[in-house]
Specification:
Blueprint: H1 7-44, E1 56-60, E2 63-67, E3 74-75, H2 80-87, H3 92-101
Antiparallel strand pairs: 1-2, 2-3
Length: 106
C-alpha cells in the first residue's frame, strides 16, 4: 500500500517549486537587462547626445575630450573637467567651469 504524502509535504514541495521558478525568473530578468544595457551601449557608443552624429576624441587644452563636429558640442567623461581645471589657468573657460561645476568650493 503506497503512503500518501501529507498536506505539509505538498505545501513544502509547492514552495520549493515556486522558489525555483522565482529564481529562474530573476536570473532571466537579469540576463535580459544586461543584454539591453549592452545593446544600448553599442547603439549609443561615441554618438552625440544632441544630434546623434559620431563623436571624435580630440585633445582640448591637454585633455582628451569627445567632440561633435556636427553641432559643435564638447562632452566630458568623468574626471575630465577636473583635469582641465588642474592644467589651465583661470581664463574665461576656467572661470565658467568653476562657476558651473563649483570647483572652487574647497
Amino acid at each position: 500500500m503506497p503512503i500518501e504524502p501529507s498536506d505539509n509535504e505538498h505545501e513544502y514541495f509547492k514552495r520549493q517549486e515556486l522558489d525555483r521558478l522565482r529564481k529562474a525568473r530573476e536570473e532571466a530578468n537579469h540576463r535580459t537587462a544586461a543584454a539591453e544595457r549592452e545593446r544600448l551601449k553599442t547603439l549609443h557608443w561615441m554618438r552625440c547626445p544632441k544630434c546623434g552624429l559620431e563623436l571624435e576624441s580630440v585633445e582640448f587644452r591637454g585633455v582628451i575630450v569627445d567632440a561633435c563636429f556636427g553641432c559643435g558640442g564638447m562632452f566630458f567623461d568623468q574626471g575630465e573637467v577636473e583635469k582641465l581645471d588642474e592644467h589651465q589657468d583661470k581664463g574665461t573657460l576656467g572661470r565658467m567651469l568653476t562657476a558651473f561645476f563649483g570647483m572652487d568650493r574647497r
